[in-house]
Structure to design on (395 residues):
């Protein structure tokens, strides 16, 4: 197996792959444009934020697995991967602590205006009078939007700071001391801090727009360490100017893909907007945890054929019927059942054959698009190597 790692990755985990007999090509300086050529002959591609375009996927000859050494998979062209049956996996939760630490850091930085303090100090200006004005976070209300791995880690830390915590998610909110808020118009007007931890999806794109910022308190703190496209940047800039929002961002519109270079953004002109360099996941603790998970995914796949954290598996396959056949585990038995189903022009969407202890009997579960006819079922029943079967309609 040949693995290309196209982003920064800790050395000790490269060694673990090599020790397992894998050929590793490590080139952390590759960008989106280099990948079509660089990934052409590899079996597995590991990336952090480097964009894996449709071109990279289409030109690849052997690519079978793309691992996102991180959480968000929006840098990978998943529809193109689906067309070629290439697995995409990620490392959920492995960098959550690091992002939560940064989100809390940005909250404190916004409340105390730490970057402005530092800039003035470096310029020889002393302004205790101005920078002594801060609200403090204790007793303030925090709204966490997206209560997944990172949202939960933020909540834990905010609890230690004595904040009053609300959270919103499409899943149920569970957790001691965290109140579920279903409606933005109930929480945004009372929140002193809003921290966003949503994935980039068609539903979340542009969620934080003018209407949402209008609901927020004057002078509130807005933190986004998730993805830039969750926020309408022009609406955010308007709110900063008109409502004195203080803002901490780890992600922003047109963020450079390169790991080093120049950067230009409308946000640079705003005194109370602090932007970090998409470093949420970039602590040693998080990078080691992510790398360990990446190695587990690759080695697990080699050993068992199972992909952990497989993100492009069909959520709800188009199956309406299930056939379970318990049969003697002999060559040809299953093939004869499959022939009957094929002759009926029925597609099997999913199949699993599990063997009983001792190896005499196996049980095969098939998920089907259409039902088998009585005639087909009769043929299966007539097979002396079929012990029992059940054929049911699924909900
Ligand atoms: N700045 C960084 O370096 C950095 C690092 C890691 C992750 N991220 C970003 O943060 C995002 C969140 O990461 P995570 O590890 O917490 O992911 P996660 O999947 O554990 O959590 C996301 C949560 O959002 C919820 N959600 C999805 N759509 C929603 C909607 N429309 N409304 C309400 N809730 C919704 C999900 O149910 C889930 O609980 C990632 O998708 C990634 O884009 C950024
Ligand atoms: O989704 C993620 O995991 C983060 O955005 C981290 O990105 P990075 O791996 O490029 O730091």
């Amino acid at each position: 197996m040949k693995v290309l790692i196209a982003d920064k990755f800790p050395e000790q985990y490269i060694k673990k792959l090599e020790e397992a007999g894998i050929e590793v090509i490590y080139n952390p300086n590759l960008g989106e444009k280099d990948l079509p050529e660089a990934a052409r002959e590899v079996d597995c591609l590991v990336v952090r934020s480097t964009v894996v375009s449709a071109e990279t996927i289409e030109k690849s000859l052997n690519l079978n697995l793309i691992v996102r050494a991180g959480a968000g998979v929006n840098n990978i062209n998943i529809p193109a991967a689906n067309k070629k049956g290439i697995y995409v996996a990620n490392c959920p939760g492995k960098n959550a602590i690091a992002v939560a630490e940064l989100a809390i850091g940005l909250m404190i930085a916004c409340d105390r205006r730490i970057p402005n303090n530092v800039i003035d100090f470096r310029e020889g200006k002393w302004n205790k009078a101005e920078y002594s004005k801060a609200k403090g976070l204790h007793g303030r209300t925090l709204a966490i939007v997206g209560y997944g791995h990172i949202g939960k880690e933020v909540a834990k830390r905010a609890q230690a700071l004595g904040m009053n915590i609300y959270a919103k998610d499409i899943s149920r909110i569970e957790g001691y001391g965290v109140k579920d808020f279903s409606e933005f118009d109930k929480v945004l007007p009372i929140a002193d801090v809003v921290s966003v931890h949503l994935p980039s999806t068609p539903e979340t794109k542009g969620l934080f727009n003018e209407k949402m910022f209008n609901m927020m308190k004057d002078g509130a703190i807005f933190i986004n360490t998730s993805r830039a496209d969750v926020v309408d940047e022009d609406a955010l800039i308007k709110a900063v100017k008109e409502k004195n929002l203080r803002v901490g961002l780890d992600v922003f519109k047109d963020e450079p893909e390169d790991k080093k270079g120049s950067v230009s953004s409308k946000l640079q002109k705003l005194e109370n907007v602090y932007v970090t360099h998409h470093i949420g996941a970039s602590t040693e603790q998080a990078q080691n945890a992510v790398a360990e998970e990446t190695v587990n995914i690759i080695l697990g796949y080699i050993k068992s054929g199972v992909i952990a954290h497989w993100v492009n598996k069909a959520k709800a396959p188009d199956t309406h019927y299930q056939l379970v056949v318990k049969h003697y585990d002999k060559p040809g038995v299953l093939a004869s059942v499959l022939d009957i189903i094929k002759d009926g022009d029925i597609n099997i969407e999913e199949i699993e054959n599990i063997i009983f202890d001792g190896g005499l009997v196996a049980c095969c579960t098939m998920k089907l698009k259409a039902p088998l006819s009585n005639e087909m079922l009769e043929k299966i029943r007539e097979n002396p190597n079929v012990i029992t079967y059940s054929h049911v309609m699924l909900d």
Remarks:
- The mean pLDDT is 96.
- The chain has 14 helices and 16 strands.
- The longest strand covers residues 321-328.
- The chain has three domains: 2-94+285-304, 96-280, 321-393.
